[in-house]
Design goal:
- The chain has about 140 residues and is an alpha+beta fold.
- It has a domain of about 90 residues: Thiol Ester Dehydrase, Chain A.
- The protein has a five-stranded antiparallel beta sheet.
- Strand 3 and strand 4 form a beta hairpin.
Length: about 140
């Protein structure tokens, strides 16, 4: 069982050692977002980009791992994000979650988290918030 979170507690996770073009194109297929910015490198360059860029929602999905690895897959209740910089093939993504508030009622706790994801150069590519719900009731076998 995950210990009760405390305000100020922090967790950092490398959520993707290296974004690949394959991941970006696979995400296009999974999401249905076939924008040329994500799927056609020559067209993306013609639009002034240095190459393919990752979908923001791919970055958000990867960022969610910092929360689910800490509190468990079933705990995540809300997740919101603002994309602050593009993510490119080759980027390493490291996400940090910081507990901002904890509300407890009996065996139930809700924690509000601040999220931040940085690329390998240290640039912030995503900021966001998440809420987790945790149940510390005794489990019956």
């Amino acid at each position: 069982m995950t210990p009760r979170p405390e305000v100020g507690a922090r967790r950092e996770v490398v959520v993707c050692p290296e974004i690949t073009r394959t991941q970006i194109v696979q995400f296009a297929g999974a999401s249905g977002d076939y924008s040329v910015l994500h799927t056609d490198e020559p067209a993306a360059r013609a639009l002034g980009q240095p190459g393919l860029m990752a979908h923001g929602m791919l970055t958000m999905g990867l960022t969610s791992q910092v929360v689910t690895e800490w509190f468990g897959d079933d705990s995540l209740r809300t997740l919101e994000a603002r994309f602050t910089a593009p993510v490119w093939p080759g980027d390493r993504l490291t996400s940090t979650a910081t507990v901002e508030a904890v509300d407890s009622v009996g065996a139930l706790a809700t924690a509000r988290l601040a999220l931040e994801t940085r690329n390998g150069a240290g640039d912030v590519v995503l900021v966001g918030k998440a809420t987790v719900s945790l149940d510390y009731s005794p489990r019956l076998a």
